[in-house]
Amino acid sequence: MKKLVKRIGKLYFLLYMLLSIAGGLTLFSCKNNIQPMLDKTNGHFKAEEEEYDDSLIPGDEGFEESSMLNPIYYVGNRMSIVLAAPEAARYYWTLYSLEKTETAVWVGADEVLKTEVPLPPNVDRFGQNFALYIPEIPDMTPGTYELKLQVLDKDENYYSDIAQLVVYDQYYLETIKEE
């Protein structure tokens, strides 16, 4: 029994030595460094050296004030929305609540009453970025709102854009505990 254990031990040692020598020869027989292989693989994911910003700012030729905001934004009543205006000298963001009111029957149309929504003090109305956390505003219930952006460029030219902000009820599925 002892002889069998010694033979198995010698075979394992011999196998280990052969595999070590084969691995070493394979490793040292490679002519190429690993770096060119990595560069070739990662070359597909490298960013371009120079990025070109083709966005127009107020005052540029071809700038359209109606392109400052998207026509409509959708946001859940438990979420936030963050928007950025183009580069300008001054900014002013205003949020209005839109409530449809019925007018006289003979007019045959609905009148839309716009009322400004009071925003909490942490919302920057005068900055380039407009960040709004919906749960912080108690008057902001699900419905349609109007967001107005007004900017003034360096030459004191006024630009304005309006977007619809649709706030919807956001539901989370909760697990039901069995009693």
Protein topology:
Blueprint: H1 2-29, H2 34-42, E1 72-76, E2 80-84, E3 90-102, E4 110-116, E5 129-133, E6 143-152, E7 158-168
Parallel strand pairs: 1-7
Antiparallel strand pairs: 2-5, 3-4, 3-6, 6-7
Identify the notable features of this structure and list them briefly.
single chain, 179 residues, alpha+beta, five-stranded mixed beta sheet, two-stranded antiparallel sheet, 2 helices, 21% helix
Explain this structure to me?
This protein has 179 residues and is α+β, with helices and mostly antiparallel strands. The strands form 2 sheets. The protein has a 5-stranded mixed sheet with strand order 1-7-6-3-4, with no helix packed on it. Strands 2-5 form a two-stranded antiparallel sheet. The two termini are 64 Å apart. 21% of the residues lie in helices and 31% in strands. The relative contact order is 0.18. A hairpin with a 7-residue loop joins strand 3 and strand 4.
List the strand order in the largest sheet.
Answer: 1-7-6-3-4
How do the SSEs run, as a string of H and E?
Answer: HHEEEEEEE
**Termini gap:** 64 Å
Mean pLDDT: 80
| Proportion of beta-strand residues | 25-35%
Structural class: alpha+beta
Unreliable spans = 103-108
Oligomerization state: single chain
The tally of beta strands, per DSSP, is: 7
Overall shape: it is elongated
Helix content: 10-25%
